[in-house]
Structures are given as structure tokens and as C-alpha cells.
Specification:
Shape: globular
Largest sheet: 12 strands, mixed
Strand order of the largest sheet: 3-4-2-1-5-12-11-6-7-10-8-9
Mean pLDDT: 91
CATH superfamily of the largest domain: Isopropylmalate Dehydrogenase
Number of domains: 2
Number of strands: 12
């Protein structure tokens, strides 16, 4: 496999791709993504994971699509036509099984993420792309974080961060992320909403939209309809929108949640600020389940991810779709390119 000309690869962003849960579809979709010409057109990929697991994941794949893997100590090593792999050698075959969550897998995915972040912070890679992990395995391993986003924020010592999803003609960013729905109303504060609007602006600018048009969804049906169905809009969301307007942001809201996504997809807005996880993810996944991309905003490093889970039910069968991972790699490379062009 040689998707690039002599000397061309060195000019492209270096992207660290974590392998994801060894027991899920992560290893398979990583291998499939590395067979996509569009990935090599966009970047120089380096996989962070376990070589043994990746080699095992080749078994159900056609021989013609099996990429050559080569262990490296550093992302800048020349591997010729082979894919560079930083092998953490921490998942013995006897200690993991495809389709089954385990503490060993939870420990492994945390180490992949830690290593990838270490490389990005040190400037040895230009972005991090993560394959799917499972919150249950993290808990089994005693990892205190509920998911990638919170772990990445902790590793980079980031206090203000957000989860943005891109796909199907939509961009959405969340005010609250992984929390019980009953806790959401109490977490919708003027400060938190304003902070998320600011992150929305930052995210759009990093994607090349210099003056983004921001829509802010209401929390309640019909955005409370003048207070008939709640007061969060009047007390917290609307004042936050006015604060953002006073900062020069092109923002509209609160807008009824049942119409804002339609308006955004028609091109009226560049991004929608959503009050809670499912408010934003349901419309986006309806439109782009296979190609949605998760972006963590506010970090000092670029990080994108697939917008799906570990799919234990099809792990090891060779039928997993790598589309979301391919899109995540391409977006990370594009963002890294813009940052490089800006001198960042």
C-alpha cells in the first residue's frame, strides 16, 4: 500500500489514532480506515494501541485489505509503506475476549488515551483521534471518568471544555454532557450557557468559520412558551444569549428545540447550542449515524472521535463500518492544517 508520493507524507499532519476497546470494533475499524486513500491523502496516521490485538483483528478481513503494521518508538520514525504503531503491549490475548467488557480492556483504553495526549501535548503529533471505548469497562477498571471527554479535560488540565458533534449538515455543542436527565435543569445556568456559546464560536473558527451564526436551543417545550412550561429560558438562557450579543456574537435564542435543528440544517445557523446530551445527539445521529464526528472543544490539543460505541455484538465479525472514524480523521487533519497555517 502506497497512497502518497516520495516526500509528500512529511508535509501532512501527524494524527495519533487510539485503538479503542480491544474487545469492541475499534481495532477493526482502525485497520479499515488505514486502507482508505482519503485518510492517507489527509494525514500521516500513527496508531496507539496493542500490536497483537491489531494483528488478530486482521483475521476476518480480506487479505487484500490487510495493512502492514510496524512498531515504532516515536511518531517521527520512517516506516515506508507500513503503518506506524506505538505498541503499549498491555493486553495479553488470554485476558480479553471480543464482545465482552473487562477491567483489562478498561485499563488498556485509558493507557492508549494517556499516551496519545502525551504525544499531542509534546507536539509530536498534530491531533488525536479516538476509536470507541465503553464506560462500563472504565468503571470495571476503577477509572473515575465517565468517558473520553472528561478524561481528556483532566489530562490536559482544561477547566472549560465542551462536546461538539458534526454530521448530516449539523453542528451541535452541549451545555451539559453525561449526567442524569433529572439533574439537567439545575445545571442550566447563565454562566454555563454563555461559556458554551463561547466554545461554539471557538469551535467554528477552528473549522474555518470566522463569524459563526449561533443558535441556542431552549430547554423546555416551545422554549417555555413565555413561561408556561418553565422559567429556565427567562432566568438563565435568554440572559446568556444577551451577554453573548454584547460580546459581539451573532447568536439567536432561546429557540424552540423542535424547530431549531430544521432551521440549522437549512443553513440559517452554523451551530446549535443544546441544553443536554440527547437533545443534540438524537437529530444529529438520525441524519449521520454512520458518519458523525465527536469533537472536544476547548482543549489545548485537537481531538476528534467516532460518534458511536464499541458494538460488542458485531466485534470480530469483520462487518463494522469505519465511516465515522474516517470522517473523524479527516476532520482532525483539516483542523490541524488550519492551526498550522495560523501558526498555532
Amino acid at each position: 500500500m502506497n497512497y502518497y508520493s516520495e516526500g509528500e507524507l512529511g508535509k501532512k499532519p501527524v494524527i495519533a489514532i487510539t485503538m479503542g476497546d480491544p474487545s469492541g470494533i475499534g481495532p477493526e475499524i482502525v485497520l479499515k480506515a488505514l486502507n482508505a486513500k482519503e485518510v492517507w491523502d489527509a494525514c500521516r496516521p500513527v496508531v496507539v494501541g496493542d500490536l497483537g490485538v491489531l494483528e488478530s483483528a486482521k483475521t476476518p478481513l480480506p487479505v487484500s485489505t490487510r495493512v502492514t503494521l510496524q512498531v515504532v518508538a516515536s511518531p517521527d520514525e520512517d516506516t515506508g509503506d507500513a503503518v506506524a504503531v506505538i505498541d503499549l503491549v498491555n493486553v495479553p490475548a488470554v485476558e480479553y475476549a471480543e464482545g465482552e467488557p473487562s477491567a483489562q480492556a478498561g485499563k488498556a483504553v485509558a493507557q492508549y488515551i494517556e499516551k496519545a495526549v502525551e504525544l499531542a501535548v509534546a507536539g509530536k503529533v498534530d491531533a488525536v483521534v479516538t476509536a470507541p471505548i465503553n464506560k462500563e469497562t472504565l468503571k470495571m477498571a476503577g477509572i473515575k471518568f465517565p468517558g473520553h471527554t472528561e478524561m481528556l479535560a483532566s489530562l490536559t488540565r482544561t477547566e472549560r471544555f465542551g462536546m461538539m458533534l458534526v454530521g448530516g449538515g449539523l453542528r451541535v455543542i452541549l451545555v451539559t454532557i453525561h449526567c442524569p436527565l433529572r439533574e439537567v435543569p439545575g445545571m442550566i445556568t447563565r454562566e454555563r450557557v454563555l461559556g458554551t456559546i463561547r466554545l461554539a464560536v471557538q469551535a467554528c473558527r477552528e473549522m474555518g468559520i470566522e463569524r459563526p451564526r449561533v443558535a441556542v436551543a431552549g430547554l423546555n417545550p416551545h422554549a417555555s412558551d413565555g413561561g408556561l412550561f418553565g422559567d429556565e429560558e427567562a432566568k438563565e438562557i435568554e440572559p446568556a444569549c444577551m451577554d453573548a450579543v454584547n460580546e459581539g456574537v451573532d447568536v439567536k435564542g432561546p429557540i424552540p428545540p423542535d424547530t431549531v435543528f430544521y432551521r440549522a440544517r437549512r443553513g440559517e445557523f452554523d451551530i446549535v447550542v443544546c441544553m443536554y446530551h440527547d437533545q443534540g445527539l438524537i437529530p444529529l445521529k438520525m441524519l449521520a449515524f454512520d458518519k458523525g464526528v465527536n469533537v472536544t472543544v476547548g482543549l489545548p490539543i485537537i481531538r476528534t472521535s467516532v460518534d458511536h460505541g464499541t458494538a460488542y455484538d458485531i466485534a470480530g465479525k469483520g462487518i463494522a463500518d469505519p465511516s465515522s472514524l474516517i470522517e473523524a480523521i479527516k476532520l482532525a487533519a483539516a483542523m490541524a492544517g488550519k492551526r498550522q497555517a495560523a501558526g498555532g
